[in-house]
Amino acid sequence: MADPTVAEFRAAFGSAFATTPEPLIAMRLALAIERTPADVWTGEQTRRAGILYLTAHLCAMEPGAREMRKGEKPGETLYGRERERLELFVSSGFRVAGLSTLASADPDDYA
User: Fold this and answer.
1) What string of DSSP letters covers 6-54?
2) What are phi and psi of 91, to 5 degrees?
3) What is the pTM of this model?
4) Is residue 103 part of a domain?
5) How many domains is the chain built from?
6) Is 101 within a domain?
7) What is the domain range of residue 44?
8) Could you list the mean pLDDT of each consecutive 10-residue stretch along the chain, which spans 111 residues?
9) Has residue 108 been placed in a domain?
10) Chain-centre distance of CA 3, in angstroms?
11) What is the spatial distance between Cα 55 and Cα 70, in angstroms, rounded to a whole number?
């Protein structure tokens, strides 16, 4: 699946970014794509959502977008919080601690 476009970004967030200039969205979208590598964000839908939410967060952090941050802590947006939730989802998973990849498969080695 191809990365999201500016038109898809605008469609996903409705009128929230209607007045945001297209070149600004395109720059923030390119940055979000770079920060959402496919080898880490392996699920297509999850990666796509991660890109869109990070783009929205970066656009909302622009100085002229103060209304979008009303009631938020400095540096936070509701889009950034959703991106963080997705990052937790992507980074969590099955882990085994204490096993070495160099361990022998021969049970006699441990007798």
Assistant:
1) HHHHHHHHGGGGTTS-HHHHHHHHHHHHHTS-TTTS-SHHHHHHHHHHH
2) -85, -10
3) 0.78
4) no
5) 1
6) no
7) 6-90
8) 93 91 96 94 92 95 74 82 91 60 54 53
9) no
10) 13
11) 18
